[in-house]
Amino acid sequence: MRGFMRAATGPREGAGWLTRPVAAWALYDAASSAYVALVPTFFGLYFIKVIAVGHAQATSWWGVLVALTLVAAGLLAPVVGALADQVDRRIGMLAATTVVCCAATVAIPLASQGDLWLAACLFVVAQVAYTLATAIYDSLLVVVARPRHMSRVSGFGWAVGLLGGIVGLCLAILVVHGVPSGTQPTLLGTVFMLSGLLMAAIGLAAIGLMHRLSGVEGHRPPSRTVRGSFSAVVRTLRSWRQHRPAFRMLAGFYLINDALVTVVFFVAIVFQKRFGLDLEGLFWLSVLFHAVATPSTFVFGHLADRWEIRRTINLQIAILCAALVLLAFAEGRQMPAAIIVLLGLVFGSLQAACRSLYASLTPIDQAAEFFGFNALAGRLSAALGPLTFSAVVAATGSEQAAVLSLIVFLFLGGLVLSGVRTPAIGSTQA
Predict the structure, then answer these.
(1) Per-run averaged pLDDT (10 residues), the chain, 430 residues
(2) Which of 75, 95, 297, 373 shows the smallest number of beta carbons within 10 Å?
(3) 50, part of any domain
(4) Is 70 exposed, middle or buried (0-12, 13-18, 19+ CB in 10 A)?
(5) Is residue 426 one of the residues assigned to a domain?
(6) Domain count, the chain
(7) 287-302: buried (b, 16+ CB within 10 Å) or exposed (e) per residue?
(8) Which range marks the domain in which residue 380 is found?
(9) Is 428 inside any structural domain?
(10) Is residue 425 situated within a structural domain?
(11) What span, in angstroms and rounded, lies between the C-alpha atoms of 388 and 385?
(12) Can you give the CATH number for the domain in which 127 is found?
């Protein structure tokens, strides 16, 4: 990793932001997006309509499964992040978690109707491995990008990633095209397998390129690094007063992520029930989402570098609230596309802006550990979102009310972030 850091920081001060390490880093985003665009978004439909078909509690089970998955991933992420910092082999650990995620995803078609435990275990393994890989990958942002370019590089990563999502969705459309809507859900297993293979091909290629750029990484004895990882987690928790802005940022992201993650896991189910869309129609809406999100993420990245970043985040939250109101109340054939356009405008860019804000508050020598805590806050908080969504539906019988409940999380998150003091542009965290 030290070699990688030299490669990233080696150019003269006036060098551009798009370096070879940045390009390699962004390529991995394309790989992970091929997974995100399909598995988290559509596995709920697969679970309800194929695996648990005939069970009235299938939707509730899905919400609980998502919550448990996010909690498990969140609890493991800080430890894995601290371990990556101690061992100084982030790229190797990124490769290992990527392989596990892809293997579990490819194996999903092995689960058929009634195989509730097998399907649940494969999804949990894939999603947890993806979460851990993301925590390590995000920590590399402070290595490849200069402080004044973080928002731009983060936005670029999201934009490249969204293009990878489009490729995965186009493959999915080819699989289900021309198939009667009643039998389309059974083909989702094949779609998941293809997404896992695509992530493996692109992701491992990106990791190989990063390894070539990084040179020889440091190594420490495993027995000492495991102990050190737990000690680092405890030490960071005890030092929250010294890093108060970063922990306040986590609190705000905790609330915002409740809404974002719930949308990811339930939007396909809500769209199908509210607007009667078949699977191919949902895939095309996802393509539209990525087509809008790709340029908007890059644009918002530039905007965040020019504006005060919290101002950009507030604008994104307002647009997302408008999309949720339309999702709850709007009627008509054109409404799904309008809602997707609004979601695409800010979904990726909001996460990219939060990522760059958090990176600017993170000590560089504890980057993986702190991004592990980012994952901890995000996943533990996100578990509350699906549970709240399911509880509101169960209590009121209204999915509109459940959608509106997400606006409360966004409002409170924006309020917390408004009190975060950001470092001056060009400063570095010691």
Answers:
(1) 38 60 87 90 89 79 87 78 68 90 94 90 94 83 75 78 87 88 83 93 88 51 52 66 73 83 87 86 91 77 69 85 90 88 84 73 69 65 84 79 90 82 47
(2) 75
(3) yes
(4) buried
(5) no
(6) 1
(7) bbbbbbbbebbbebbe
(8) 2-6+17-417
(9) no
(10) no
(11) 5
(12) 1.20.1250.20
